[in-house]
Amino acid sequence: MLEKYDRDRRLYEDLAASMRSLIGVLTPSSGVSPHSISSRVKERASIAKKIEQKDKYNSLDQITDIVGIRIITHYSDEVDRIAELIETEFNVDFDNSVDKRSILDPDRFGYISLHYVVNIKTERSKLLEYKHFSGVKFEIQIRSILQHTWAEIEHDIGYKAKIEVPKPIRRKFSRLAGLLELADDQFVQIRDDLKGYERAIRKNIRKKPENIGIDAVTIFEYANKSQKLKELDEKVAQLTSFQLRPLDKGDAGRHVKYLQYFGIESISELEQELIENEDSILRRATDIGKSNRKQKTASQGISIFYLHQVLAAKRLDKEEILPFLNKMSLSGKSEREEFANYLSNFFGSDL
To answer: Fewer CB in 10 Å around end: N or C, the chain?
Structure first.
């Protein structure tokens, strides 16, 4: 068996790499973006040890985990969605597959995952790049990132069974396993709550903007829904020669701290400030356009970004502007004093 392993080692390595790539291509259809997909081929020493310890293998083909693929999901409920994909795309040997989530005793510590033994389907094995793998079984392990964390730490500690753990430590293991399982459930709940919140904001942001507070979600939705902001952004883009790109949630989150700094607490207040300061925002955009900067693009909501600067020029004393720029990390450090002088003189004698 070990001689066959040596001869087929290259085949196993090619299978591991190919299946890792294939699963990476397939997973988007499940609606899940995994945290990671990895592969490994068991080392010769591990194969030899397994053969010696188990004393039940008559051929190498009976060892179904020589090649292993591990899929780590962000959330525990995504394990089942990936599992459905695997069952659709591969032949699953259910007799040798194990769902440790269903067999874990209530009083046992330890963490859980789903193990499938599979091989590629006949129609896929007819393709040139897969024909060498026909009939070769391998293991796919699916677990959440918290389940993976537990398994890795447990492996590092070195105890594989409950009875091996000293009794004073056993209770700590059990409590920690329960906490991680609760954390897994709570992360799913938080994700679902955020999605529900986003749906509610989309529905109410036009109807009751005065009731919508400022956070990354509301800024993101406002930037995508407000006709006023869209029109103002287009004017800014013309003056600066910027190409507008979609706003991402990271950029939306950065707006929050600026708006909070100036006490803007609702979407209706934000829109009112944009209306009142439109001329100043466009003047700031004109100055940017004249500066011949290398920047070619800006995200939707660029008008909000210039509003922050206009409000700093309008509301802050000269000695307060530089600390504001430092706190918000606006412009490069070497340029902040010059930028502070620009903002302090932005309105001149107009105010």
So the answer is: C
